[in-house]
TrEMBL record:
Biased composition (Basic and acidic residues): 276-285
Record protein name field: Suppressor of forked domain-containing protein
Pfam families documented for this protein: HAT_PRP39_C (PF23241), HAT_PRP39_N (PF23240)
Classification via PANTHER family: PRE-MRNA PROCESSING PROTEIN PRP39-RELATED (PTHR17204), SUPPRESSOR OF FORKED DOMAIN-CONTAINING PROTEIN (PTHR17204:SF31)
InterPro entries to which the protein is assigned, alphabetical: HAT, HAT_PRP39_C, TPR-like_helical_dom_sf
Main location: nucleus
Record's compositionally biased regions (Low complexity): 262-272, 659-679
Length: 750
């Protein structure tokens, strides 16, 4: 057996029996084999380029700093495309254009082809179609060992793809003549994807191969294994099995174990019969010159009762699988794109994956849970919420190795540029006692992923304060503020100052230090509505007396339009700030300060509002009677609401508790009276700073990748392989409460 043939037969992965045993037993370290496709100790580990990351294999951005050593000069178009993907390795269209250009002008230069495919597949390891194209290039130049190497990397990079395993098995059939080698590969494949609802193409190829070999017992065993699982085309498989059983003798269909079992049962039956007949029957047999029926004759019996029993055992498996299929068929029919692509999935499909996972988790079969998560993460690889959910699910089941493996793949390969996953990683590592790992996650956010992300700064400082490192917590703010001060018109800087001041007062109870931070901020930032809102509330939490004389000119400068100053606040923001200040004075000001603020407000804003408000009031009165009539026609039945939390427009769709939550400010200290809640009517727009734990105005929350207009990917499933979703029984739309009006700074943030 040649080297490449041995690689196929032995594999880089664990054997089928080993992997299934690992899952069924203790869900321990061996579970990583199920997820990665990596085998036991001593087997070849997946290289970093194939996207299967481990804690000991750092994954760097492919293409970045790549040295051209392919042996020939690049064309101008190749140079242009390489420069694009080096600058941004997530540019999928540029990558595919680069591959096409390289293939067009360098068909015979396998070194250049290897270079571009290695770099692309390091960034997008789930594109099984490109693994197939890569292997075809190696086969074209006759490098069979390289073909096997590419396929082995492929099945480790996209282990739960039916298609890549099918391509690999077809290659083995066409290349090797040893049935054991080919069967070994098929067995590896069905361990991972044999229970996939869409695994029929792989099973069909396995059946076709064994039919060519005319190994009827193996063929019957394959049918038996298929009938245990609720997969597509189950009726066809059961009918084909019955046809096989009715056309071949049972002696050819039974496995060696089944034949031995039948022989033992036959011996026991004959022993009982001989004991009842006595010695007389034994003598008669000897006189007639006959002997006992052989075991082989018993095993080869074509008795209709034996055939019925043989089929009946498989029929029971089939019925049970069909029952489970009826429970999942709605979920499966709603999966319109089971393969990976950079284009975002629609809301209904994302919601369907969550509902499907909910159902399988409630069923309690750990094997099914792991495999469905891995299937989901092929299609939903670009969505951090599914990785987070997977990690939490594995952690709650005690499978920490699977949880760590999933988190590593998420943070190092698939969603490595999305801040949400790194914030989650930092939180999880801190909870698990890995403080160094948590700090590393925050530093990665500060330095590479999203420098200046307010949520990362807040959470990092809070962690250090929890650990008792108050100076380090202050240092987190000070370092980021120093960086932002060097930028022109930093949006983040006023928010950082306001948050730092608040943090200082709440941690140290040092009002002077907190006020000093605010005073320093005024020297470096242009006052804005959000900053002044924070400053006003800061005065509410400080001990009296309130510094109204200091606040009033700052508020006036912002709310009064002045062409001489760089006042960028909109009219709506200026009016809202004026109302907030008036309410603040109502709690802590005197009569004169309140009169001054109200007169100023009336002069600045009321003349511009009277006409629009009169129009609105007139329209409301006109429609009031019609609303009453319409309400009767609807019989008080509210129309269905759209599905809630429509990804990608919402930063957190899954209520797993990991998303950032608004926090509540403490009540003012040493106040003469308990302040009331700020009236939401005074502020009808949520402040950019008013979402503690959310993303600042200068940073967009993690969303699905930008849609990429292009033709279907090479690795796309053929449309006819999936049933039309029009017939799928979808879940009823989730009722969503009416959206609350945007709240003022004080009602949401503190």
């Amino acid at each position: 057996m040649g080297e490449s043939q041995a690689m196929v037969a032995e594999g880089y992965n664990a054997s089928a029996a080993t992997v299934e045993s690992n899952i069924d037993s203790s869900q321990s370290v061996a579970n990583v084999s199920l997820v990665n496709g990596t085998g036991p100790e001593g087997s070849l580990t997946a290289p970093a380029e194939n996207g299967t990351a481990t804690d000991n294999v750092p994954v760097t951005a492919p293409g970045a700093g790549h040295v051209d050593n392919a042996g020939s000069a690049l064309s101008p178009e190749e140079e242009r495309l390489w420069s694009i993907v080096r600058a941004n390795s997530s540019e999928f269209n540029a990558w595919t254009a680069l591959i096409e250009e390289t293939e067009r002008i360098s068909q015979d230069n396998i070194a250049k082809i290897r270079k571009v495919y290695d770099a692309f597949l390091a960034e997008f390891p789930l594109c099984y179609g490109y693994w197939k194209k890569y292997a075809d290039h190696e086969a074209r130049v006759g490098a069979m060992d390289k073909v096997v190497e590419v396929y082995e990397r492929a099945v480790q990079g996209v282990t739960y793809s039916v298609d890549i395993w099918l391509h690999y098995c077809v290659f083995a059939i066409n290349t090797y003549g040893d049935p054991d080698t080919i069967r070994s590969l098929f067995e590896r494949a069905v361990v991972y994807v044999g229970t996939d609802f869409l695994s029929s193409p792989l099973w069909d190829k396995y059946i076709e191969y064994e039919h060519m070999q005319q190994d009827w017992s193996r063929l019957a065993m394959i049918y038996t294994r298929i009938l245990e699982n609720p997969i597509q085309n189950l009726d066809r498989y059961f009918n084909n099995f019955k046809e096989l059983a009715e056309t071949r003798p049972l002696s050819e269909l039974r496995s060696a174990e089944e034949s031995a079992t039948v022989a033992v049962a036959s011996d026991a039956s004959e022993t009982a019969l001989s004991e009842s007949d006595g010695k007389a029957d034994e003598g008669k047999s000897q006189a007639d010159g006959t002997s006992e029926p052989s075991k082989l004759e018993s095993v080869g019996s074509t008795d209709p009762e034996e055939l019925k029993k043989y089929i009946g055992i498989r029929e029971a498996l089939y019925i049970k699988a069909k029952e489970f299929e009826s429970k999942i068929i709605g979920f499966e029919m709603a999966i319109r794109r089971p393969y990976f692509h950079v284009r975002p999935l629609n809301v209904a499909e994302l919601e369907n994956w969550h509902n499907y996972l909910d159902f399988i988790e409630s069923d309690g079969d750990f094997n099914k849970v792991v495999k469905l998560y891995e299937r989901c993460l092929v299609a939903c690889a670009n969505y951090p919420e599914y990785w987070i959910r997977y990690v939490l699910s594995m952690g709650s089941s005690g499978s920490m190795d699977l949880a760590d493996n999933a988190l590593t793949r998420a943070t190092q390969v698939f969603v490595k540029r999305q801040p949400e996953i790194h914030l989650f990683a930092a939180r999880l590592k801190e909870q698990n006692g890995d403080i160094a790992g948590a700090r590393a996650a925050f530093q990665l956010l500060h330095s590479e992923i999203s420098p200046g992300l307010l949520e990362a700064v807040i959470k990092h400082a809070n962690m250090e304060q929890r650990l008792g490192n108050v100076d380090d917590a202050f240092s987190v703010y000070e370092q980021v503020i120093a960086v932002e001060k060097g930028k022109d018109n930093s949006i983040l800087l006023p928010l950082l100052y306001a948050q730092y001041s608040r943090f200082s007062y709440l941690v140290l109870r040092d009002a002077e230090k907190a006020r000093k931070i605010i005073v320093e901020a005024l020297d470096h930032v242009q006052p804005s509505k959000h900053f002044m809102e924070a400053l006003i509330f800061f005065e509410t939490i400080l001990p009296p007396p309130r510094n109204i004389e200091y606040l009033d000119p700052l508020v006036e400068n912002l709310i009064k339009p002045n062409v001489d100053t760089q006042n960028t606040a909109s009219s709506t923001e200026r009016e809202e700030l004026s109302l907030i200040y008036i309410e603040f004075l109502g709690l802590f000001g005197d009569v004169e300060s309140i009169k001054k603020a109200e007169d100023r407000h009336c002069k600045l804003f009321l003349p511009h509002r009277s006409r629009s408000e009169l129009k609105k009031r007139s329209a409301d009165e006109f429609l009031s009677s019609d609303r009453t009539k319409l309400a009767k026609t609807y019989n008080e039945t509210a129309p269905a609401q759209p599905v809630s939390n429509a990804y990608p427009n919402a930063p957190a769709q899954w209520s797993g508790g990991y998303a950032a939550q608004p926090q509540a400010w403490p009540q003012p200290q040493a106040a003469p009276a308990q302040p009331q809640q700020w009236n939401p009517a005074y502020g009808q727009q949520q402040a950019a700073y008013g979402a503690y734990g959310g993303y600042p105005a200068g940073y967009a929350a993690p969303q699905a990748p930008t849609p990429v207009p292009q033709a279907a990917a090479y690795g796309a499933y053929p449309p006819q392989a999936y049933p039309a979703a029009a017939t799928a029984p979808l879940a009823a739309p989730v009722q969503q409460p009416a959206a609350a009006p945007p709240q003022a700074y004080y009602n949401t943030y503190y």
